[in-house]
Design a protein that fits this description.
With 143 residues, the chain is mainly alpha-helical. The protein is 74% helix and 0% strand. Helix 1 packs antiparallel against helix 2, helix 1 crosses helix 3 and helix 3 runs antiparallel to helix 5.
């Protein structure tokens, strides 16, 4: 039973990553560099911030549903929440070094992902969004 919950949490996390990648790619196609960043900088624009908050919630919600469907009981979702909190704390404590200097007009999605500077408050908010999304996604399916 515990192994099933652990596997469900892992598959739920994979679902979150897949949804985040797909929806972030779509958001990038819609906004492009000019809509994702403030002019000439690596600072993310408010449209990108809002979009990433929504995408984060949707990904976590779907991951929570996937986990709850596979898990033996509610502990599967709790394991997934634990994984997300640990990874969130790690990302807060070990920040990624963002690019400096002016941003070129033509930048690809991979470079943008590696170089973007998001507000510190968003780094703190992301794990909270994930926990709420997973909890709500798994709520109706929990045993």
């Amino acid at each position: 039973m515990m192994l099933r919950n652990i596997l469900a949490a892992i598959v739920g996390y994979i679902a979150i990553v897949a949804v985040l990648f797909a929806l972030s790619s779509l958001l990038w196609l819609v906004l492009g560099a000019s809509g994702a960043f403030q002019p000439g900088t690596w600072e993310v624009a408010s449209g990108w911030i809002l979009g990433s908050i929504v995408i984060g919630f949707v990904g976590a919600y779907i991951g929570g549903r996937v986990c709850a469907r596979m898990a033996h009981d509610a502990k599967g979702a709790m394991i997934l929440i634990g994984i997300l909190v640990v990874l969130g704390v790690v990302s807060i404590l070990i920040p990624v070094e963002a690019a400096t200097g002016p941003r070129p007009d033509d930048v690809g999605m991979l470079e943008a992902t590696m170089s973007a500077r998001q507000p510190t408050w968003l780094t703190w908010l992301n794990p909270v969004i994930g926990v709420v999304g997973i909890w709500l996604g798994s709520r109706k399916l929990r045993a």
